[in-house]
Amino acid sequence: TITRENAARRIDLTKPERSLILRKPARELDHEGGQKLRANSQAWNTVRDWIAAGTPLGDRGLRVSEIQVTPAEVLLSGAGKSAQLRITARFSDGHERDVTAMAVFTSLDDSVVTVNKSGRVKVHRPGLAAIMIRVMGQVTATRVLVPHAAASAGEYPKPRNFIDEKIFAQLRRLRIPVSAGASDHVFLRRVYLSLSGRLPTADEARAFLKKPDRDQLIDRLIGSEAFVNYWTLKFADLLLIDSKKLGLEPARAYRDWLRAQIARNTPMDQVARALLTAKGNFTANAPANFHRQKSDPRDMGEFVSQTLLGVRMACARCHNHPVDRWTQADYYRFAAHFARTRVREGEVVLAQRGEVRNPRTEQVVMPSPLGEAANSRAAGLDYLPALADWLTRPDNPFFARALVNRVWRELMRRGLVEPVDDLRATNPPANPALLEALAASFVRNKFDLRRLIRDIVRSRTYQLSPRPNGINRDDNRLFSRAYLEKLPAPVFADAICQATGQPDIYAGQPRGTRAVQLLDARVPSYTLDVFGRCPRTDSCVDSTQFGGGLSQTLHLLNSRALNAKLRPAINRLLKVHPAPRAALEGLYLRTLSRFQTD
């Protein structure tokens, strides 16, 4: 188009600077696209020199294999300070070139730092930000740390484990002090809600507050039935177990299978392998229901990458991903793993044939894991065992990081990467060293979910107070204090039932069934709908994204269902504790998990 079309009128080989492809974008001639090049600029000279050389096509195989940013991390003190980023491209033939002038820079938090077109970063306030860099189809990012003006962050509590070491080390660099440790009653309430999805009873609260032993309480909760029920709910939300889509009996079998894995503390790599490779009857081999989420291999590839790897591939379906490294070819090679999976007559089976074509080339593509050059090897007709082998390898760059990030978010109310299903170079973790340490520990401990949870909740970081100390008031991602969040809908509903002693009655369920034990969102409950339970029709990354607002407020104020619980609850409380102070103590312990203060 540039060198041959319309009798090659766009270029002038004898006088390159007179070429239309230079004169129009430089606005030497009228041009609807506006000025794109300045005459005699580096970009203008590059095009002119190419024309002067005879417009060679060059090596068709030459491409940029990676880009590197210097410095890899920027530390700047004080508003108005600045630093220059340099970008180097490494090409497939091994040579390197400075491509700073061609890069596109974007600040991911303009309130902390901004960056201009040439890559100069300027500070506006203390904090942590990232600069995304895009050039020649490659993307990367660099972190910018801007410490607070305080001379130091003062003394930090003694770390209890590697989590505290990584968190405190970064906070020291930013001169952000941590909040005080949470009081016993705050910790008590938090750890019950985090691990078991319920409040402590009045007797449990009274016993702990009189003789607090935090590690013993953590171990007891992690070994409880309530833990199994609550974390089954969490993973059922993740896997979108829904009786409307799957059918009642298959959904129940799938949930029961999942619960058995949580109860046995089956290593999570084995759970992932079972999901990926399962075939057969929906009920007899329940993990086969995993493959019923999507019927198109492209959709299934997106579901698996987002759910198990924390990678959003959807953008690469139609074009190379604009802010990640994935190409359209990567997308279709990954999707090809699922091309032979079929649902027939109550079973998941393998078809004799099944293929995926790259729409750009119309070529049939061979299955290949993300970021891998080699194709997957088929076990007969089945490519999924090879995918499971790759995904559960100790050195897999995605699975362990994605899962520990999800668990961290559940316990700490914010992921190290947010959103938790969008891990990419251009969305760097709030604390990269901690994410890598958590993933390494998870792999080293054989993908032990309970060990991971125990490590997090035993840390001082988990046990910090939510009260800010002044400097860390604006911290919402560095974990210098605890973050507050609404209770998930099932936990909220169960807390009301527990505090009042009046259970909700769910259709078709035994009396005393808790909301966290329900199969899915198809069990009718106006309270759960208003509070915002996960519908499991799509990703429920944030358990608080549904419900709330005016409907929830009015329900809490005026609902007959809730108000009807109060009178018998108060009557029973006064019967057990006739003295006002004792009744008040009972009320506080049942609702706020603490003794009343003056």
What keywords describe this structure?
three-stranded antiparallel beta sheet, four-stranded mixed beta sheet, globular, alpha+beta, 22 helices, 598 residues, 11% strand
Summarize the helices and strands and which ones pair or pack.
Layout: H1 5-8, H2 20-23, H3 42-52, E1 64-70, E2 73-75, E3 82-84, E4 86-91, E5 96-98, E6 104-107, E7 113-115, E8 120-123, E9 127-135, E10 138-146, H4 162-174, H5 184-196, H6 202-210, H7 214-222, H8 225-239, H9 243-246, H10 248-264, H11 268-277, E11 280-281, H12 297-308, H13 328-335, E12 341-344, E13 347-350, E14 356-357, E15 364-365, H14 384-391, H15 399-412, H16 432-444, H17 449-458, H18 489-500, H19 526-531, H20 549-558, H21 560-576, H22 580-592
Task: Write structural notes for this entry.
With 598 residues, the protein is α+β, with helices and mostly antiparallel strands. It is 39% helix and 11% strand. The strands form 5 sheets. It has a 4-stranded mixed β-sheet with strand order 2-10-9-6, with no helix packed on it. A 3-stranded antiparallel β-sheet has the order 1-4-5, with no helix packed on it. The protein has a 3-stranded antiparallel β-sheet with strand order 3-8-7, with no helix packed on it. The longest helix has 17 residues, at 248-264. It is globular, with a radius of gyration of 29 Å. The N and C termini lie far apart (82 Å). The mean pLDDT is 94.
